User: What shape does this take?
Amino acid sequence: MADLFSPYKLAEVELKNRIVMSPMCTYSCTTRDGVAKRWHHIHYGARASGQVGMIVVEATAVSPEGRISPVDLGLWDDKHIAGMQELAETIKSEGSVAAIQLGHAGRKAGVPDAVGPSAVAFNERTQVPREMTVEDIEETILSFSQAARRAKTAGFDVIELHGAHGYLINQFLSPLANKRTDSYGGTLENRYRLLNQVIQQVKQHWSGPLMVRLSVEEYHQDGNHPGDYVTIAQWLKQQGVDLADCSSGGVAQARIKPFPGYQVPYAEKLRRETGIATGAVGLITSPLQAEEIVANHRAELVFLGRELLRNPNWPLYAARELGVKIKVPDQYQAGWPTVNAD
Assistant: This one.
């Protein structure tokens, strides 16, 4: 059995393999109400039938002003629960674990009146956010908590908090976006305070597996770097976070030259130096590449993004290439005789 197809327990939830669909926005709530549409069921259902071990539903806004775009999914209102419940059931119907990423875009919001830790724009083309008051921060923390409650009611197995790619939590963590002089700014410990409190409040409603996505390298000399995130990962582990999903970038404009597996060392470093379980991302496209990451204990899970947009049946191809027999949906067995489980 290839390590990529070995089961993995994320807290009490078992994944049938180590393949995870990264959260990727599809911008498909065409009615702008945040409610899941038929497209979402088709999109995520296809990856479930393709035998992805865990599917992380795209960044879902915890408040309307926290949307990356006006057509994002939302969980800021109880009206969203029914559609999300149906979506979670669709994902789980073929044995995939249903996860959801909760986020707030902060200064990168694609709606009017963006807010952020400080009145610092992302770049010259984006709006200058209004600096959040302590009351705004407290309301946002409550929004994450209530969204977690709704995710639980909807039947999701796992929650991921979006602390990466230059969105609100990442903005508070980064000295590039956070210029505050109160207890939410200045030192790394103070900049971590928002995420600390979000985790605390989410756990008031959520006892299941909890992941946090991180931008472990900010690609700016004055930003956070992997050494800073080793400290942050230690704090996450102390708070009972089950896995750090290790990405990079998004706080500062940067020219990145990606190559296959270019972000994997971040997952490996946090795992090695803190003991926290990690997920690896970043141009992971081939089965042998994914197998190497898991087999050499560089990360517990492999997160695939664009490759699963191109090929929703990637796990079936991977199983065939690695010589592993896995369960194939009955309806597809005629097309996959070499990967069909006995």
Q: What stands out?
A: Residues 161 and 212 are 5 Å apart (CA to CA).
